[in-house]
Automatic annotation (TrEMBL):
PANTHER family linked: TYROSINE-PROTEIN PHOSPHATASE (PTHR45706)
Region (Disordered): 16-45
GO molecular function, one term: protein tyrosine phosphatase activity
Entry-linked PROSITE patterns: PDZ
Domain PDZ: start-end pairs: 60-137
UniProt cross-references to InterPro entries, sorted A to Z: PDZ, PDZ_sf
Name assigned to this protein: PDZ/DHR/GLGF domain protein
Gene3D superfamilies for the chain: 2.30.42.10
Pfam families reported for this sequence: PDZ
Length: 200
């Protein structure tokens, strides 16, 4: 399960070698190969849960969105872009950063909540991730191949998951609203997407 949002998990050391094929530096967990078919909230039916091959060193990562509905990571790629689904950015202190095992930049996303995504378009992957927020558990379960693209030149995606819809919740106490706004502004300026992704 994901750790508390207020606590940072230990960040496990990672290799900078490109296209790492060994388990390396994540805590490796086996994925649940059994189970019946599942239906995502967007109506997409998964005929069977994802089952990794015996030769694959994969990691299962679980997280839930923060109070603003963000998981805290960006991805790029998709079969429509002839590129695997790669984590291009992880926002500090976000659920993706504080869960254990931690999601890391350069990880390749192999499956989302039991659905294998190698043949999915970028838009489909976006829908799968967003559907998790609307489920009863709100849990996002990623199966990733660690460090798959460390050292690669990974551009930021056009659509960013952090925040999915940039805003500061009305229920956040007044001092925290300013803090959250400054964090959003800092992140948007750093990524060069301030005009597109930041709302005053």
């Amino acid at each position: 399960m994901c750790a508390s949002f207020g606590q940072r998990c230990l960040t496990v050391g990672r290799s900078t070698t490109s296209l790492l094929s060994s388990p390396g530096h994540h805590s490796v967990r086996s994925t649940n190969g059994g189970g019946s078919a599942s239906t995502l909230n967007n109506g997409t039916n998964a005929a069977a849960n994802f089952q990794p091959g015996n030769d694959e060193a994969l990691v299962t990562i679980r997280m839930r969105p923060d109070p603003q509905g963000r998981f805290g990571f960006n991805v790029k790629g998709g079969c429509d872009q002839n590129y695997p689904i790669i984590v291009s950015r992880v926002i500090p202190d976000s659920p993706a950063d504080t869960c254990f095992p931690r999601l890391n930049e350069g990880d390749q996303v192999v499956a989302i909540n039991g659905v294998e995504v190698s043949h999915c378009t970028h838009e489909q992957v976006v829908r799968y991730i967003r559907a998790c927020k609307e489920s009863v558990s709100q849990e996002l379960v990623l199966v990733v191949r660690p460090n798959a693209y460390i050292g690669e030149d990974i551009e930021e995606p056009d659509l960013q998951y952090v925040p999915l819809t940039p805003h500061v919740a009305d229920c956040v106490p007044r001092p925290d609203i300013l803090h959250q706004s400054l964090l959003l502004l800092k992140d948007s300026l750093a990524s060069g997407s301030a005009i597109v992704n930041f709302e005053v």
